[in-house]
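Per your request, structure below.
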């Protein structure tokens, strides 16, 4: 039994592109986008794909052609979108540390919305807008003091976190700038975390936003947009992720009566399940009679850091299953010189042999975008599968690439 992506044998990709390599399914991403869009039909909404989840130009083009807009958190992400012709009116700029140069770049691009995250940033934004001689559409990202997210490193909505402003501070800034010549308040924003597996935090955040929205309206600040961020979790192993219908109901129940336009910023939910990291077994070893049995692969933590960074569990399976082979516990590790370079520990898997292929599942989001050249390892290639064909959408780095710029 062999593994296919759409109608392409995975082993064929490995043969032609070598390993490690990221493999993405175009059909899976398109289906996820359309299902997300349908979940909010009947209410005005804009889907702004979170570029940080997977910023390959081919992936961005795919969502642009589907009618998507984009959420960015850096000038580099803006540059990527400009390279493929995405207009500023399709871009929301979030992020806690926008530089003055990034603000100027975004003003030149005439972005759809700035999500402001501090008083200093708001002052810089107003100053730069005055230099450009035109007002800027803005919202404030409110920190609702909610605990949510699949790991402390990806929870963003609690008062301990660096993101956004507490409501009293945000309200003061809305009112102080309600007659500003250079700041045009268009909306209000929240983002509470990532890989969230319950709709309760989303519902509570939406309820709070609805209250803030009405409060500002009574105070003379008329808003049109509510940005509810992203964060919807996906299934990697045995997690039970909410359905899109449950997620939409949780958000729409408090916000629909406002008559506003929703901005949604999914990332992982659109691309996470659409990708795998394909790797090849280098060695099988045991350090001692009492120690674990190691499967050493040619992919490593520099290629895919989520297990080391978040203790994330991503299933790994052989690409070709062999009938009758023994299943036994193994540690699947990489060749990087770090004990933390481990994908799975005590993982029940069919016995693999050197040279055989393995697939790490759920690698479409926060995979290549977080890759590095640690241990002077060239970064992997990326491939997009389209039906019975595939194409390289990022070439594998060479050793010459490692020292370019040094």
């Amino acid at each position: 039994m062999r593994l296919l992506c759409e109608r392409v044998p995975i082993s064929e990709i490995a043969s032609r592109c070598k390993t490690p390599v990221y493999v993405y399914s175009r059909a899976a991403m398109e289906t996820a986008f359309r299902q997300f869009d349908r979940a909010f039909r009947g209410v005005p909404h804009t889907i702004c794909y979170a570029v940080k989840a997977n910023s390959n130009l081919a992936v961005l083009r795919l969502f642009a052609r589907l009618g998507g807009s984009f959420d960015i958190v850096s000038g580099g992400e803006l540059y990527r979108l400009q390279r493929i012709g995405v207009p500023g009116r399709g871009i929301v700029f979030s992020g806690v540390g926008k530089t003055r140069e990034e603000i100027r770049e975004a003003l030149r691009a005439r972005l759809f919305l700035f999500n402001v995250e501090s008083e200093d940033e708001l002052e810089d934004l107003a100053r730069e807008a005055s230099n450009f001689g035109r007002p800027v559409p803005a919202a404030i990202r409110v920190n609702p003091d909610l605990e949510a997210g699949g790991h402390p490193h990806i929870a963003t909505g609690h008062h301990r976190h660096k993101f956004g402003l507490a409501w009293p501070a945000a309200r003061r800034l809305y009112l102080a700038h309600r007659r500003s010549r250079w700041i045009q308040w268009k909306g209000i924003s929240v983002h509470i975390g990532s890989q969230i597996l319950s709709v309760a935090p989303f519902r509570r955040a939406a309820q709070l936003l609805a209250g803030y929205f009405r409060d500002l309206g009574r105070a003379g600040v008329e808003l049109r947009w509510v940005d509810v961020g992203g964060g919807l979790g996906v299934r990697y192993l045995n997690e039970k992720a909410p359905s899109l219908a449950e997620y939409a109901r949780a958000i729409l129940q408090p916000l629909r009566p406002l008559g506003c336009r929703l901005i949604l910023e999914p990332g992982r939910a659109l691309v996470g399940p659409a990708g795998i990291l394909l790797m090849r077994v280098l060695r099988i070893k045991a350090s001692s009679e009492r120690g674990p049995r190691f499967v050493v692969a040619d992919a490593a933590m520099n290629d895919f850091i989520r297990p080391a960074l978040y203790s994330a569990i991503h299933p790994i399976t052989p690409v070709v299953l062999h009938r009758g082979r023994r299943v036994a516990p193994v540690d699947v590790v990489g060749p990087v010189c770090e004990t933390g370079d481990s994908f799975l520990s005590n993982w029940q898997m069919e016995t693999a042999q050197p040279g055989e292929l393995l697939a790490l599942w759920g690698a479409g989001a926060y995979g290549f975008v977080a890759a590095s050249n640690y241990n002077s390892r060239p970064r992997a290639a990326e491939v997009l599968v389209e039906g019975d064909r595939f194409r390289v959408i990022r070439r594998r780095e060479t050793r010459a690439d490692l020292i370019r710029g040094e």
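The chain is about 30% helix and 25% strand.

Regards,
D.
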